[in-house]
């Protein structure tokens, strides 16, 4: 959301742009690539641009092509630059710093000549279950199916021909950063979704690397794991500058200048922590989009190994526990599209924001039963580890005596979307006694006031705060991380509190006992009825 400004404020902002007192963040989300330019003094958004894209299922694996990546990046940046030109009457020639972030995990593997060996395999793929089980058992540390090392090891187990030729593998953010700066580095938060991080050194866990290299499949390779991994950096460290070739790749028009400092590339979990001021011990956030994850910065090490909990790092390297669900808004958006088609059929023109607002508010309206009236919805477009599913099929189900109305239908949509992530959160807070001092929600679903916030408060039985920056999301958070390059003399958490969020406005929704009770009843039925989902997987083809 671009800040509304008076004539004098706009003049000041234009001066910030021309002098480079700005910071640019670009994040590759699952369905949208967004670019955000912020003022380095006020942290307000000055301009933005985006580009919609979708992953494709090819040969049973979810992927984006390299052409998709670069077309999307250039288009999002061009939209941002056009927004700057329109608002401030000047080209965007430079900025104080730049940062790139993306959805975490996945597998981008390159040979010694920098050529991609196999199509990009995204976090959404769950074909790595064998690797997840074997590595988790070996390390006694959860290695989720999404993690880059699980993808690499699964390729080794499957005897894929490209494996001996791997010279480097990284995440999407790491790949983009490499091509624009020439540096093979990764922010520690994103790195923690590739391979375990040692919380003391803020670097790769050397003991686990040694164990990996001793595997029979590893001994058969011409490389050692450390030869393939990027260098790990914490927030504020030097990650290189935009090269001449990188500037032309980002902005083919040639207006953007080279030499701009670039922050360590981060994952969407890390930028979510930044956007919600959740990097201090005990703070947590829920980032909701195509996938959803709830992250809490840990006050102590977990007593047991839990496959449902990812152990990741903040951008400063602090240990955090994450409950990650692969599925969230894809099914919800599909149903909203059906309602949009219905409105069109009636000749009624309804904007997207108005439609979402009306449907979401129905879920907490007087016609909604606390437990969604016995309706069930499974939003599984893809596999979901937390639910024990290797594949997914979206399913809506109800009994003949269920109370079917719009309010309950939408409540079931939201309840069902929040169910998987709740599994991991319950483990952290109930079994491991992780203390949470604050939980902040962010992402597009929180644009509609109160609704998702109220539903989530009931699901987690905890207060949920939404800040005025909630809709800005990861691109804004990445812009803040880029700006931190100039403030790295103070701890990241102090910088956020004393500079970025000192005047931030927020609202907090306390859990309503009726919502808590209703969600619990829904959740129990959700888990009991999972055989419905498994039957759908067996009987409905994955591809049309």
TrEMBL record:
Q: Which residues form the Carbohydrate kinase FGGY N-terminal domain?
A: 24-250
| Lineage, opening ranks | Bacteria, Bacillati, Actinomycetota, Actinomycetes, Bifidobacteriales
- Assigned protein family: Belongs to the FGGY kinase family.
Q: Which SUPFAM superfamilies match?
A: Actin-like ATPase domain
Q: What are the GO BP annotations of this UniProt entry?
A: D-xylose metabolic process
* Protein name as annotated: Carbohydrate kinase, FGGY family protein
Question: Keyword annotations for this protein?
Answer: Carbohydrate metabolism, Kinase, Transferase, Xylose metabolism
Domain Carbohydrate kinase FGGY C-terminal: from-to ranges:
285-482
Pfam families recorded for this chain?
Answer: FGGY_C, FGGY_N
Stated EC number for the protein is: 2.7.1.17
Q: What is a single molecular function from GO for this protein? A: D-xylulokinase activity
Recorded hits in CDD domains, A to Z, give: ASKHA_NBD_FGGY_BaXK-like
**Which source organism does the UniProt entry give?**
Bifidobacterium bombi DSM 19703
């Amino acid at each position: 959301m671009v800040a509304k400004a008076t004539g004098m404020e706009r003049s000041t902002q234009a001066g910030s742009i021309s002098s480079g007192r700005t910071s640019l963040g670009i994040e590759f989300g699952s369905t949208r690539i967004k670019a955000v330019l912020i003022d380095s003094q006020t942290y307000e958004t000055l301009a933005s641009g985006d580009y919609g894209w979708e992953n494709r299922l090819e040969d049973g694996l979810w992927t984006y092509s390299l052409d998709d990546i670069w077309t999307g990046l250039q288009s999002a940046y061009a939209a941002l630059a056009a927004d700057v030109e329109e608002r401030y009457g000047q080209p965007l020639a430079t900025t104080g710093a730049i940062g790139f972030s993306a959805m975490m995990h996945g597998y981008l593997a390159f040979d010694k000549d920098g050529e991609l060996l196999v199509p990009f395999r995204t976090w959404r793929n769950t074909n790595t279950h064998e690797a997840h089980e074997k590595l988790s058992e070996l390390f006694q540390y959860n290695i989720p199916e999404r993690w880059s090392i699980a993808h690499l090891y699964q390729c080794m187990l499957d005897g894929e021909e490209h494996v001996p030729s791997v010279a480097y593998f990284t995440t999407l953010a790491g790949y983009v950063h490499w091509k624009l700066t020439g540096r093979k580095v990764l922010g520690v938060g994103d790195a923690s979704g590739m391979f375990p991080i040692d919380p003391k050194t803020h670097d790769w866990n050397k003991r686990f690397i040694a164990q990996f290299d001793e595997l029979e499949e590893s001994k058969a390779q011409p490389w050692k794991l450390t030869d393939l991994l990027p260098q790990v950096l914490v927030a504020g460290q030097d990650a290189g500058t935009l090269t001449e070739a990188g500037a032309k790749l980002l902005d083919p028009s040639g207006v953007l200048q080279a030499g701009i400092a670039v922050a360590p590339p981060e994952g969407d979990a890390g930028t979510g922590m930044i956007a919600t001021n959740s990097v201090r011990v005990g703070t947590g956030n829920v980032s909701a989009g195509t996938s959803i994850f709830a992250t809490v910065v840990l006050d102590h090490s977990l007593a047991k190994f839990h496959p449902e909990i990812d152990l990741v790092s903040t951008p400063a390297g602090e240990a955090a526990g994450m409950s990650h669900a692969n599925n969230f808004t894809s099914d919800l958006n599909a149903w909203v599209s059906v309602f949009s088609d219905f409105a069109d059929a009636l000749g009624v023109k309804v904007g997207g924001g108005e439609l979402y607002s009306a449907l979401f508010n129905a879920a907490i309206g007087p016609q909604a039963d606390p437990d969604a009236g016995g309706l069930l919805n499974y939003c599984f477009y893809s596999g979901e580890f937390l639910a024990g599913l290797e594949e997914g099929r979206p399913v809506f189900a109800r009994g003949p005596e269920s109370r079917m109305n719009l309010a309950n239908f939408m409540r079931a949509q939201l309840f069902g979307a929040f169910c998987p992530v709740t599994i991991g959160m319950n483990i952290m807070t109930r079994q491991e006694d992780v203390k949470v001092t604050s939980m902040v929600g962010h992402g597009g679903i929180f644009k509609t006031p109160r609704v998702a916030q109220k539903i989530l408060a009931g699901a987690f039985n905890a207060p949920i705060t939404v800040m005025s920056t909630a809709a800005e999301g990861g691109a804004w958070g990445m812009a803040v991380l880029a700006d931190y390059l100039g403030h790295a003399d103070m701890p990241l958490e102090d910088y956020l509190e004393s500079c970025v969020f000192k005047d931030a406005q927020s609202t907090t929704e306390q859990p309503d006992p009726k919502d808590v009770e209703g969600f619990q009843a829904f959740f129990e039925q959700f888990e009991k009825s999972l055989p419905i989902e498994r039957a759908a997987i067996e009987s409905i083809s994955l591809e049309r």
